[in-house]
């Protein structure tokens, strides 16, 4: 079997398994099918934005121009899902192990994809037109551990990696919240109030507070869905106010709109057929699509094939569709061989000794 045949076979096999898998019941431990659909649509929106970022005329189209709003959608959904995970997890060490194992292996594998595309450019063009590569040992370590910008001054090697640094810090902050017990909401309320402080998001250690209101809004949405009391309402109000205070109107309206949609779906539980399985599969592979669409969509498809497509007089929407389909196919392959095995290992394959060691390290650091 050739490489291309194997590639297609793996994707079709995985897609068949996903489509035949019985859907989870709505509100299963807080699970909502709308989350998968929103993740999938947000990832497509980000892809559409990035593949046109080097084409100012196309970028002026409304749906393309606002594609960057997919990132705050990811943050809100991530906050909601992390609140779900916290509900089922009492050990900060195990929580961190599972979350970091889900994010780091695909991230490191996507760096390999970036390096392969850099090699392609060096071989065909004689120059690296893709990214600024780390040079010193410190820059390499920062890149491998996601301690790049905005945590440090080290450049990311992929346009989207900046958001992953925030995501990792959010994991650590929510893990710390486990030690507050029944005062966890008070801890989140304090962070929400702190995010109002002018310029706090530019401070080296507290930079994560610059994006905390978006992530915190997802947390607050979950808590408000579960228990509509004064504390959860206060947390929700503080974070919505922080978002409208700190961010643009378009971002604030998008984030609060997503929060409201999640609340309505949680409360009224719309029928499952409103969320087709193919769209939910896009949600499953959304992280892989997010990680790989820049090197594949922007620096392979757009860089090498777009001139050919433009010469044929192909309309830009059709050109966008072709590039997006290629990105989805590659993301499905990446998800099958990298991301999904990492999820399974994080859930089932962590040896007890490693769990204990990781928990002890986290306990000593508190």
List the helices and strands and how they pair.
Elements: H1 3-20, H2 33-51, H3 56-59, H4 62-65, H5 70-88, H6 92-125, H7 137-144, H8 161-177, H9 184-194, H10 212-226, H11 230-246, H12 249-268, H13 277-284, H14 286-311, H15 316-348, H16 352-365
Helix pairs in contact: 1-15, 2-5, 2-13, 2-14, 2-15, 5-8, 5-10, 5-12, 6-8, 6-14, 6-15, 6-16, 9-11, 10-11, 10-12, 14-15
Q: What general outline do the C-alpha atoms trace?
A: globular
Low-confidence stretches: 22-28
- The total count of helices amounts to 16
Biggest sheet descriptor: none
H/E element sequence: HHHHHHHHHHHHHHHH
Keywords summarizing the entry:
single chain, 366 residues, mainly alpha
How would you describe what is shown here?
This protein is 73% helix and 0% strand. By secondary structure, it is an all-alpha fold. The longest helix has 34 residues, at 92-125. The protein starts with a helix and ends with a helix.
